[in-house]
Design goal:
This protein is an all-beta fold. The protein is 0% helix and 57% strand. The strands form two sheets. Strands 2, 4, 5, 6, 9, 10 and 11 form a seven-stranded mixed β-sheet that branches. A four-stranded antiparallel β-sheet has the order 1-3-8-7, with no helix packed on it.
Length: 123
Amino acid sequence: VQLQASGGGLVQPGGSLRLSCSASGNIFSFNAMSWYRQPPGKERELVAAFPSVGNIRYAESVKGRFTITRDDAKNTVYLQMDSLKPEDTAVYFCNVDVLVGPTYQDSYYQTVWGQGTLVTVSS
């Protein structure tokens, strides 16, 4: 399974960006889909997630500004980012837990990370 993330770039404070992450491969289903970010010089942190169990989760710092959505028919997860702030500057990574395998009977769960896309919020 491979993940292709896109949509990053330079945006002014208060602006918006939409990140996309598409998965390719012999995928049967998704167990969880998440977005993480790693600001310069800091640890990677969870931003938003469709967990395997329970409701959508958001980091406190992005609640009300970011929205995670998914399109299972396209094997894609999105992150709509509005009212962006300079502190949102980071490399954003998608992460999925997927059920994969040559056949459904031989399937197994795999955790996959995307390559990261840089979001810079600056005037």
